[in-house]
Design goal:
By secondary structure, the chain is of the alpha+beta class. A hairpin with a 1-residue loop joins β7 and β8. It is globular.
Amino acid sequence: GAARVEEGLSNTLIILSSVWKGQLEVDKEFAETPEIECDADELNQVWTNLLTNAWQAMKGQSEARIQVSTEYYPDGYSDRESAWQAFVGEVQGPCVCVKICDNGPGIPAEYLEKIWDPFFTTKDQGEGSGLGLSIVRRIVEEHGGAVGVRSARGTEFCVLLPLKQNETNIKKKEGSDRDGAEWKRSERAGGMPRKFQ
């Protein structure tokens, strides 16, 4: 299917706002981006995980704020990948960029390289699952996209998604749907809700 990322982001924010109950401010800076070929439900899982992590990082903090922005790069992504501390995937050609930024305590540098690993968590035992970032990485890469993070004061995630899916991505997705079913199930068992729809 095809969808604009802003629709999924807006819907996810509406769902999560009932959990946040006004404990944080959300600043939306949405551009007029074109539709992209995507599995909208899967992308909503990405937004849910990233936004939930941001909220959990700032829980109890006064003046907690999340900024969600979108941008269209018709000639390809122009910011250097080196601007990001942990960057996975690669996107060439026209793409849409989603940035989710919080003003929480940030992610310690020694954790940044590990955050994409399945089951990696900074939480104490019994406090729930990991960051859900391995799921984010898998879904983004299945869409032929890339994802990066930088963290100092606060944490910023950047997700790049191509406008069109090529054959390789589609085959990769079909293969991983088969091969990854067991892994996804076990990952999901301790994790975030997979779909809100």
